[in-house]
Amino acid sequence: MADKFAWACRLETQTQVIIVWHIATSIFEHSVPISYLISDPDYLTAISLSKYLAYLVAFCPNLLPDHPYDLEYAFNEIIIETRRLLKGCKTREERIRALNRISNTMYNNGRVIMQGAQLGQELLKEERGRQFIWKVLAEFWAELMVYVAPSDNAKAHAGHLKMGGEFVTHLWALVCHAGIEREHRVERPTFNRSQS
Q1: Of the candidates 26, 141, 168, 178, which lies 20 to 30 Å from 37 by C-alpha distance?
Q2: 54 closest CA partner among 141, 123, 136, 183
Q3: Spatial contact of 157 and 151, defined as CB atoms under 8 Å apart
Q4: 115, 20 Cβ separation under 8 angstroms
Q5: Chunked in runs of 10, what are the mean pLDDT values of the chain (196 residues)?
């Protein structure tokens, strides 16, 4: 199972990973009856953490592991791509239908929205059922929260703690106190902003 979705964890930035999985989680969420969702703790975990990490990308990027400039650039590219692909979609249902159509009719050119739609379709086609996928999603989002919590940006987290703190900031304080650090990836060059 891990190999099947591993491609969606090996994207260029953590911002892209978060958004691709957030889109896929949203597509999968939309396919499940509401009565089922309320009682499933894996669903609640997956949806809550998915939305929270997407919120961090949009509103608290300095608390995430990507370089702030790369994160801002990736996020802006995602916004432009989303506006283009989902132009005219007014409701959530229309956006989900458009994402499903995109994944079935367009070539995956490595763009985040298309990758999220593709992953969403892969989740929908998984033969082991909804409960299994919600467990996979809950574990993925929980592991991603633990991955993003260690941070070199103590100043940003300290600033948030003064105001009560973000959830990730409280996790950061715990992992820092425990001496847990994220392995530093091999530095890749930052996005070449002139090639867009």
Answers
A1: 168
A2: 141
A3: yes
A4: yes
A5: 82 92 92 74 94 94 87 89 88 85 66 89 88 94 92 83 86 86 55 44
Locate 177 and state its tokens: 């106190």
- Residue 193 makes CB contacts below 8 A (sequence gap 6+) with 73
DSSP-assigned letter for residue 98 = H
Distances (CA, A) of 102 to 96, 165, 190: 10, 38, 29
Determine the Cα–Cα distance for residues 151 and 173; give it in Å rounded to an integer: 10
Among 62, 30, 54, 53, which Cα is nearest to 43's?
30
Six-digit token string for 68: 């702030």
Q: Tell me the pTM.
A: 0.84
